[in-house]
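Severity: low
Component: inverse-folding endpoint
Summary: output formatting inconsistent between runs
Steps to reproduce: submit the following structure tokens with default settings.
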């Protein structure tokens, strides 16, 4: 049975340009690639228990966009007892595409925009599978405080969530339904158009 929506959970690193990249990827998904099919949620409302955002991480499969080695998105979900359906790890995606994060906030320069596009494309492929594949299954989760999830340097979030890399920078979480990675040329075309539009908005070159 397919799911009606997918939740995107970008990292929210304060003062770190990579958070601008992951947020832009989330906006591309929610506004341009899969409008009406994506709920975009940030970390603070989930941690503090804002009803709508908490409902979205419980009712729909969550794709985490971790920005850096702190893995804030994965750690935040673990803290409230929610297992992500999938996870993209930006440094690994960047190692494949070679697009730099950039240095600017609140909006990334062209290199960061292109990295956001790479993340959005991978996330859209995963989300489309969850939304359209009749063999994909998801059971509602229940958020609950998980004191053992408090992040410190001794916590191995990769092992805790049982992450397995199924494509460059793309991870499956143990206990969650497997997803397919079927490329879609139409997604790439739409993303290329979006990046061109952003480039035309101003001088964002590195």
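Observed output (run 2 of 3):
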């Amino acid at each position: 049975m397919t799911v009606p929506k997918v939740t995107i959970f970008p990292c929210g690193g304060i003062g770190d340009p990579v958070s601008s990249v992951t947020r832009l990827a989330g906006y591309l998904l929610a506004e341009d690639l899969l409008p009406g099919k994506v709920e975009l949620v940030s970390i603070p409302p989930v941690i503090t228990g804002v009803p709508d955002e908490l409902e979205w991480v419980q009712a729909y499969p969550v794709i985490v966009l971790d920005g850096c080695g702190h893995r804030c998105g994965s750690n935040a979900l673990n803290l409230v007892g929610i297992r992500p359906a999938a996870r993209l790890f930006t440094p690994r995606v960047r190692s494949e595409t070679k697009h730099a994060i950039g240095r600017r906030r609140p909006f990334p320069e062209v290199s960061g925009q292109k990295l956001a596009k790479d993340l959005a494309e991978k996330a859209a492929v995963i989300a489309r599978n969850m939304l359209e594949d009749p063999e994909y299954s998801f059971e509602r989760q229940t958020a609950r405080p998980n004191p053992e999830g408090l992040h410190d340097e001794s916590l191995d979030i990769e092992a805790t969530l049982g992450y397995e890399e199924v494509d460059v920078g793309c991870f499956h979480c143990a206990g969650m339904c497997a997803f397919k990675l079927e490329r879609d040329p139409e997604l790439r075309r739409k993303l290329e158009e979006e990046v061109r539009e952003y480039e035309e908005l101003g001088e964002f070159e590195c």
